[in-house]
Write a structure and sequence with these properties.
This protein is an alpha+beta fold and about 300 residues long. The protein has one domain. The chain has five helices and 14 strands. Strands 1, 2, 3, 4, 5, 6, 7, 8, 9, 10, 11, 12, 13 and 14 form a 14-stranded antiparallel sheet that branches. It is globular and about 60 Å long.
Length: about 300
């Protein structure tokens, strides 16, 4: 009972803290230090309520039979509006430089051949497999890209803070790159995106997946309380589906697409997982705008 009460209080404090950021900005400050993270925030947009800068430092994306560890940082940045009173979700506003979701090519273990050694394999075996199957010709990289416009991203501060329900709706597509696949090999598209309903709480996936749990992380205030930092935020979703690969192999895609899909295996709900370990920065758009005007 005491643990539950503590959790409720902590959740309420985070929710109140996020809401309070929208009122910050009365005092002057310079767009330096932690404020520089919001350099691409559209803080002059009258609809912008909060600026967001989120870095996914680690985690993994499991698509069918392929598991890709996140080894290179991916940044989501921009702003979001006040929450819709009916849905509870805020609409996202893209970064001013057009890079709302940064593109970071992640190495796919086993490359095109999909040969991954057992964890208990000798070091030499692992090294040889990596040398032969993960080089420039046989290697395979996977890059997460935004499938549609930034306005299709949705955020719920209450769900994020409360560790319950969907905190972030993120429509994405996966770009598979290799010299043999051409430049247009994708899983997911603008017309048929992979939609992640990421949560900091518990998931309820279709089998064979089982429930996994995220967390809002540890909260700290910076710049005299005008910026909220959440360390160790874990966003998860393992109940999403993905369409088949398309555009792989150029003019012979009709032959290559089935091969890629065979490598991936089943990608219906219950067979895929996204685990994103993040550091979040949220700041008042009013405060950032004021600082920008005072320090051009």
């Amino acid at each position: 009972m005491q643990k539950h009460r503590t959790r409720v209080v902590a959740t309420a404090l985070v929710a109140v803290a996020l809401a309070a950021l929208g009122l910050a900005g009365g005092a002057s400050a310079k767009l330096v230090g932690n404020y520089t993270k919001f350099a691409q925030c559209p803080f002059t947009n009258p609809e912008a309520s909060k600026c967001l800068y989120s870095t996914t430092n680690s985690g993994e994306v499991k698509l069918g039979k392929k598991t890709v560890p996140i080894e290179k940082a991916v940044v989501l940045q921009g702003a979001y509006t006040e929450a819709n009173e009916t849905t509870g979700f805020a609409k996202f506003i893209g970064a001013t430089n057009g890079i709302t979701l940064s593109k970071a090519a992640q190495n796919v273990p086993g490359g095109l051949a999909g040969i991954v050694p057992e964890a208990s394999s000798p070091f030499l075996v692992k090294a040889l497999i990596k040398f032969f199957f993960e080089n420039k010709l046989t290697g395979l990289s996977s890059t997460l890209e935004l499938a549609n416009s930034a306005s299709d991203i949705q955020i719920s501060e209450n769900n994020l803070a409360g560790e319950l329900g969907t905190a972030l709706v993120l429509p994405v597509k996966v770009h598979l790159e290799n010299p043999f696949l051409g430049k247009s090999c994708y899983v997911g598209s603008s017309g048929s995106p992979i939609t992640w309903n990421l949560t900091t709480g518990k998931t309820a996936p279709s089998p064979p997946n089982t429930s996994i749990t995220g967390t809002v992380g540890e909260i700290e205030f910076l710049e005299e309380g005008r910026i909220l930092e959440a360390k160790g935020t874990k966003l998860v979703d393992n109940n999403w589906s993905a369409p088949g690969a398309s555009g792989c192999g150029g003019i012979i895609s009709f032959l290559v697409n089935p091969i890629i899909n065979s490598q991936l295996g089943t990608t219906t709900k219950g067979n895929n997982t996204a685990i994103l370990n993040n550091t979040l920065f949220v700041g008042s758009a009013v405060a950032v705008n004021k600082n920008n005007k005072e320090n051009p």
